[in-house]
Amino acid sequence: MSVWNPLRLLDLAAMDLLKDETSVISILEYLPTELFPPLFILAFYGRHSETLKAMVQAWPFVRLPLGGLMQMPHRGTLQAVLDGIDVLVAQQDRPRKCKLRVLDLRNTGQYFWRMWSGSNSYVYLSSMMAPVAEDSSRTKQPLALLEVFVELHLKESNLDEFLIYLIRWVEQRKGSIRLCCKKLKIITMPTENVKEVLSRVQLDCIQEVQVNCTWHLSTLALFAPLLGQMSNLQRLLLSHVYLSAFEEQQQHVFEFTSQFLRLHHLRDLYMESPSFLEGCLDQMLSCLKTPLDNLSVTNCLLTESDVTHLSQCPNISQLKGLDLSGVTLTNFSPELLQVLLEKVAATLQKLDLDLCGIMDSQLEAILPALSHCSQLRTFSMCGNLLSMAIMEKLLQHTSGLLSLSQELYPAPLESYSPQGDFHPERLVQLQAGLLKILRDLGRPRTIWISSSPCPYCGENTFYHPEPVVYSYNIPA
To answer: Which intervals of the chain form a coiled coil (predicted)?
Structure first.
């Protein structure tokens, strides 16, 4: 007999039950747990509203991952589920079988439905019966409290109909229902609309924030108090925050950076084109409450004092990832980057220094520190003007980094004319020299050589990176 036959029988049994909704509802209390998911799927897609409403009240799992079934939200089926929750939260004593604490409307849970419908029958079923770790911080909430998780991607001037309906439903049930999200993404929505939506959300649930739109510093300052309430925030990504003329920079920077004092779980900080940080980086670093895992400050101007403060910050000593791409370091003291790398050498796994204006003398100064980054896996220096001679030294100093598996380096200076024109035929000759260096070092290795971005103009070119590969020749 095929291992799938019993599971097909379950589906057939569920389909047979749904022919009489009244009978289904009457036996839910006695229905085996393994029948609930396949029966729920059939009821959901068949739009059996009364069955859905009753099944929610008897749901034998902590979480109902409804979002995994909703390619397009359907008002009728969603309403049936919400009606079932209304009945559930109104009861002083929940049904014996019901364990529901979380209604998950995010596009997750496909694994749950596959497992219980039989496509992964070998998985330990007990794992789905226990409360999930992400809700453990709120286990002291009253038993009647139920959480509804949604994805918040705020990208229009007006909210979509589904989210408006859900927000109103939650708003009418304050005290028994909490609207939560783990990841907040803001693309084009006006600040006032963002504040209006977030006033309905449990901000301490948010673990990741992405702001992928152009904001003035004053707009960021208006958003900052909301950010400070996200006490469990772990990951923050900000893109293109500009300092416009006549803005009160110091006050706005303080209003933003002071909120970091309340973020005790922040681990990853990514800031793309934060023009307001020039001369103010120390203000932000001094407000960090925990060591960071990843720090990215890219495509902006920093002062030498900023980089000094960065190298002295105690909360960057455990960095796994550091990205300073697009930050011009040409006129800075070479020792600054050396001190910074020495600070993170024990833990650093990824280092990006693309388009930093690094010259031979600066790279030579950091080579000893770079050679001590024993955990380094990815290293990129594209877009810098480096000679063939210094690249040979670079390859020598990094040959002992056994974890280093992805290396992206710029086309050597000799690939360009004095006017800055790139000559691919010169690079072909230089690649042969690089291969000889790798062969002489004696360790199998692949490095990628790229002329993009251009170290002279900063623009991306149409030339694709070329690999230089050295591997052992195994005798036949």
So the answer is: none
**What is the per-residue burial (b if ≥16 Cβ within 10 Å, else e) of 382-400?**
bbbbbeeebbbbbbebbbe
Burial class (CB within 10 angstroms; exposed 0-12, middle 13-18, buried 19+) of 71? exposed
Q: Are residues 375 and 439 in the same domain?
A: yes
- Number of structural domains (the chain) is 3
Q: Is residue 234 part of a domain?
A: no
Same domain? 435 vs 353: yes
Q: Are the C-beta atoms of residues 265 and 294 closer than 8 Å to each other?
A: no
Angstrom distance (rounded) from CA 237 to CA 259: 15
Residue 390: its pLDDT value, please?
A: 98
* Residue closest to 373 by CA, chosen among 404, 395, 414: 404
User: CB–CB of 307/332 below 8 Å?
Assistant: yes
Question: pLDDT for 252-284, tens place per residue?
Answer: 999 999 999 999 999 999 999 998 999 999 999
Q: Name the domain boundary from 116, 136, 165.
A: 116
Q: Give the three-state DSSP class for 330.
A: coil
- What is the Cα 249 distance to its own chain's centre? 29
Residues lower than pLDDT 70 in the chain:
1-11, 13-14, 72-74, 117-144, 157-158, 244-247, 462, 472-476
Q: What is the DSSP letter of 21?
A: H
Query: Are residues 363 and 438 located together in one domain of the fold?
Result: yes
Query: Domain range for residue 61?
Result: 9-116
Tens digits of per-residue pLDDT, 421-446? 999 999 999 999 999 999 999 999 99
pLDDT (0 to 100) of residue 10: 62
Q: What pLDDT score was predicted for residue 245? A: 59
> pTM for this structure?
0.87
User: Can you give the pLDDT at residue 297?
Assistant: 98
The reply to whether 108 and 161 lie within a common domain is no
The count of residues in the chain is: 476
Residues 354 and 427 in one domain: yes
* Residues 383, 355 contacting (CB under 8 angstroms): yes
- Judge contact between 53 and 81, C-beta under 8 A: yes
450 Cβ contact partners less than 8 Å away, ≥ 6 residues apart:
382, 408, 409, 410, 411, 463, 464, 465, 466
- Predicted local confidence at residue 308, as pLDDT: 96
Point out the domain boundary residue: 141, 176, 206: 206
